[in-house]
Write a structure and sequence with these properties.
single chain, 123 residues, alpha+beta, 3 helices, 20% strand
């Protein structure tokens, strides 16, 4: 017998969401086949939001390279960055050429939104 009453619909289970903590000491390894499958499946939207702590001036250049490495690895469609400082913005503008970069400011510290440029031609 069914637990559903007459006229009720069964809903599909919720989609599985993947949340990766980029601040963890150990970041899970994602296989190349998983990344390739994600890149070929354009039905979803992926994003990263990250407070990159640009106010901490220790190892700023090394940390900026680390941010770009994660972005290249996960290749999200949209990126929201907080506490960006001018040196970070300059580095991102030089390295993240596959993204349109929208800066909330260019002085002090600010937020940045990065939108992946489309690989598809308009039809």
């Amino acid at each position: 017998s069914s637990d559903l009453q007459q006229g009720e619909m069964s809903l599909p289970p919720p989609a599985v969401e993947v949340c990766i903590d980029l601040t963890a000491d150990i970041v899970p390894v994602v296989s190349a086949s998983t990344i390739k499958a994600k890149q070929e499946d354009d039905s979803g939207l992926s994003f990263i939001t990250w407070n990159i702590d640009g106010l901490d001036e220790m190892n700023l250049q090394e940390r900026a390279r680390g941010v770009c490495s994660y972005l290249a690895l996960y290749s999200p469609d949209v990126i929201f960055l907080q506490e960006v400082v001018p040196p970070y913005l300059s580095y991102l503008q030089k390295r993240a050429v596959s993204y349109n970069i929208i800066s909330g400011n260019e002085d002090g510290y600010f937020t940045v939104i990065m939108l992946k440029k489309s690989n598809r031609s308009e039809e």
